[in-house]
Amino acid sequence: MKRITWKMVSTEAKLLLIGIPVLLWTIIPIYHMVLFSISPRDQATSGRLWPKEPTLNNFRLVFEQKHFYLDYFWVQLGNSLVIALSVGALTLAVSTAAAFAISRLKVRGGRTVMNLALFTYFIPAAFLAVPMYKTMSNYGLLNSQWSLILAMVTIASPYCIWVLKQASDKLPLELDEAAKMDGATALQLFRLVYLPLMVPSLVAVGTYALLLAWNEYLYAFLLLSKASSVTLAVALGNFVAADDSPWELLMTTGLIYALPPAAIYYTFKRYMVAGLTAGAVKS
Amino acid sequence: MTSWEKWGLFLVIPYLLVFLVFVIYPVSYGLWLARDPQSYVRLFADPIFFRTLINTVIFIVVAVNVKMVVALFLSGFFLHTRWWIKLLSLIFILPWAVPSIPTILSMRFMLNPEWGVINTLIFKMTGLDGPNWLGDPTLALAFSMLAHIWKSLPFWTLILLAGRMAIPAEQYEAASVDGASSWQKFRFITLPSIRSLYLTSVILSMIWTLGDFNSVYLLTGGGPADMTHVLATLGIRYLRLDQVDLALASVVVALPLVLPLVYFMMKRLSK
Taking a contact as any Cβ pair under 8 Å apart, which residues of chain A between 219 and 278 contact chain B? Predict the structure, then answer.
């Protein structure tokens, strides 16, 4: 049996003294949202820790689109999904091709392309929003979902190319030489050797791009405006425009909107953390 | 040109097209639209602009440093192996894993002076009306910074935790044998090992914080009376008022703030 000493007790106490505030700080805004979503309208703001009569009625109201803020709930949820999936797929295609060309095929000027991409990555997207808005209007793409998809691919790909290039540079060069010796074409090398070895990084960057698009608010509300074409993020933002907003419905919709990214994050946590830390920690 | 070189060119072209059409063109077009000196005169004459600059500087100096110091501290906390700390680390990551719109709106409701849960509790306990949290420019900016810290603290804690875990355990064991205190271990082993990572993180966090639109816009909307705008929201404000030239001028004015930080990061990463 381990002897319990005073030193051990004080260490545990110190850890708890940090852990409890951290837990409260983290959970309160989220718990507040959950509390709203299970409270009847007149009890949501009572200041109680748990509603007197918890209910799932808010979820029913949202799913049945029983409020004029929610007239397009399912369409908007679908928009968010289609846009996120398109951005994920397109970003993955564009950045995998570029990273392969730069890292393995050593395309001329590859270093410059990489630096340009990195530069784009570091310029905050909020600063590119105004020129991007003008550009999309010039291209006649405003209010088309393509504008948001293309803008998000532009914002997501630099980081993806960089992470993929880092991972790809680590694959042994002998692989390519052996493939070349055997008379393999670049495409065969890509398909049979490169892609299978890169799966973890591909999952990480694909998820990154998908979540970036699903979570995006600024570009979505600038580029899209019709109630039937906006994403759920924009619809949530529109709720607060009026004073008489149904908070409990907003929080319920917000919770539904927040669940998929959280689920994806926890499912791919291993890949995400490895990919992201490889991205940020190195240096 | 060999077939491999041809493939290389072919595969890099899609990204180059994206870059030309959606980065080079917008940036050049934006700079061209922002060429009129008159726009800058009008921008500097706008009292909101001056206030915005101050807010932005407060944001990147105070919010970023507070966040990084806390992240450094918490990374040490999460290093401890306890079952409940492992569980807590899963919960702790939530703010970063969920989108910021619903959570920031949730905070906004908590802070509502009439119905918000904070003032309801204050009234229940003291019988007094709580302050109008977001109606005061200083408080509103402080809460925007808190929302920002709430959202991004988990990410930086994770990064610094990874940095700390890369330090060989033998170094700490050797120090323990020599009777070093935990402060001495932190000061002479941890700090030197993660100094460079910490500095990079601060700079990168400053860049991202400069571009943080949501924490301010969704919590305060720039209000009250446009007193809590930062550079990331100011451009959008002008755009919504249909003053595109001012919007672009405000972005150009932000460049001297952003570019040195970007230069630093580029230097770091191309090493």
Answer: 222, 233, 236-237, 239-240, 247, 250-251, 253-255, 257-258, 261-262, 265-266, 273, 276-277
Cβ distance A18 to B77 less than 8 Å, yes or no, reads yes
Domain ranges within chain B, ordered by starting residue: 1-33, 46-269
Distance CA A234, CA A218 (A): 8
Residue-range domains of chain A with CATH: 6-63 (no CATH), 70-281 (1.10.3720.10)
**Cβ–Cβ gap A258/B88 under 8 Å:** no
The 10s digit of each residue's pLDDT in A95-139 is 999 999 998 888 888 889 999 998 899 989 899 999 999 999 999
Smallest CA-to-CA distance from B100 within A225, A44, A236 is with A236
**Closest CB from B14, B22, B108 relative to A151:** B22
What is the C-alpha to C-alpha distance for residues A77 and A85, in angstroms, rounded to an integer? 12
Over the stretch A74-87, which tens digit does the pLDDT of each residue have? 999 999 999 999 99
Provide the residue type at A177 as one letter.
E
Here the contacts of A136-141 (C-beta below 8 Å, separation 24 or greater) are A136/A223, A138/B29, A141/A223
Residues of chain B contacting residue A18, judged by C-beta atoms under 8 Å apart: 74, 77
Enter the ipTM: 0.90
Listed in sequence order, the residues at least 6 apart from B100 whose beta carbon sits closer than 8 Å to its beta carbon are A215, A217, B151, B214, B215, B218
Give the contacts of B234 (CB within 8 A, at least 6 positions apart).
B48, B49, B52, B222, B250
Q: Kindly list the residues from chain B whose CB atom is less than 8 angstroms away from the CB atom of residue A22.
A: 74, 77, 88, 92
The alpha-carbon gap from A262 to the nearest alpha carbon of chain B, in Å, equals: 5
Whether the CB-CB separation of A72 and A227 falls below 8 Å is answered with: yes
Q: What is the 3-state secondary structure (H, E, C) of A88-127?
A: HHHHHHHHHHHHHHHHCCCCCCHHHHHHHHHHHHHCCHHH
Nearest CA in chain B to A221: B236
Q: Is A166 at the interface with chain B, CB within 8 A? A: no
Q: Residue A233 corresponds to which tokens in the numbers above? A: 């993020």
Helix (H, G, I), strand (E, B) or coil at A1: coil
What does the pLDDT profile of chain B (271 residues) look like in tens digits? Answer: 677 888 889 999 999 999 999 999 999 999 999 888 999 999 999 999 999 999 999 999 999 999 999 999 999 999 998 999 999 999 999 999 899 999 999 999 899 888 888 888 888 888 888 888 898 999 999 999 999 999 999 999 999 998 898 889 889 889 988 888 888 889 999 999 999 999 999 999 999 999 999 999 999 988 788 899 999 999 999 998 989 999 999 999 999 989 999 999 888 877 6
Of A198, A199, A176, A200, nearest to A188 (Cα)? A176
Q: Which CATH number fits domain B46-269: 3.30.420.40, 3.30.1490.20, 3.40.50.300, 1.10.3720.10?
A: 1.10.3720.10
